[in-house]
Amino acid sequence: RLLTEAVTRLRRALRSSIRTDYPWETLPMAQVELLQVLGEHSPARISDLAARRRLAPSTVSGLIGQMISAGLVARDVDAADRRASVVTLTDAGREKLVAWTTAHERRIDAALGALDDDAREAIGNALPALFQLAENLGAEAGEGTPER
Fold first, then answer.
1. What pTM did the predictor assign?
2. What is the DSSP string of 7-72?
3. 24: domain CATH number?
C-alpha cells in the first residue's frame, strides 16, 4: 500500500511540477507518453503503440491525428508491409520530448538535492529493485521488457 501511494504521489508531483517549470499549453500526458514510446520504438504501427500504452487503437489513432496536425509525428508507409502505415517522430516531436525529459530531470535533480545524503543513497540503492518491479509488472501485462 505504501509503495502504491508513493508511486501515485510521485507521478502526480512530477506531472504538476513539470507544468510549472515547463508549461506545455495543451499537450496532454497521453501524447507525451506516445512521444516517449516513439522515442524508444520508432517507427511503430498504431496497433503496437496501442498495445504498449494499453489503449484502444481508435484512441491512439485519434491522438496520433492530433500529433500529426501539431507536427510532432508523421505517418509513413510501412516498409515491411506497404498496405500498413507506421508513425515516426518528427524533428519537432523529438525536440519536445528532449525538452520534456530535460525539464523532468532538472526537477528531480533539484528535489534530490534537497534530501540528505542517506535519503539520496537509499533512493539510489532502491533503483535496481524498482526497475525489476517495473519489468515484472510489464511482464504480467504482456509487455516486453522495458528498456532502461
1. 0.75
2. HHHHHHHHHHHHHHHS--TT--HHHHHHHHHHHHS-SB-HHHHHHHHT--HHHHHHHHHHHHHTTS
3. 1.10.10.10
What is the residue whose three cell numbers read 501524447? 31
First and final CA of the chain: distance in angstroms? Answer: 25
Question: Is the separation of the CB atoms in 31 and 67 below 8 Å?
Answer: yes
Q: Indicate whether 148 belongs to any domain.
A: no
Q: Going residue by residue through the chain, which has 148 residues, state the pLDDT in tens, using 9 for 90 and above.
A: 899 999 999 888 887 777 666 665 557 788 888 999 999 988 999 999 998 888 899 999 999 999 999 999 999 988 888 888 899 999 999 998 888 888 888 889 999 999 999 999 999 999 999 999 988 887 765 554 444 4
37 backbone dihedrals φ, ψ, rounded to 5°: -60, -45
**Is residue 65 assigned to a domain?**
yes
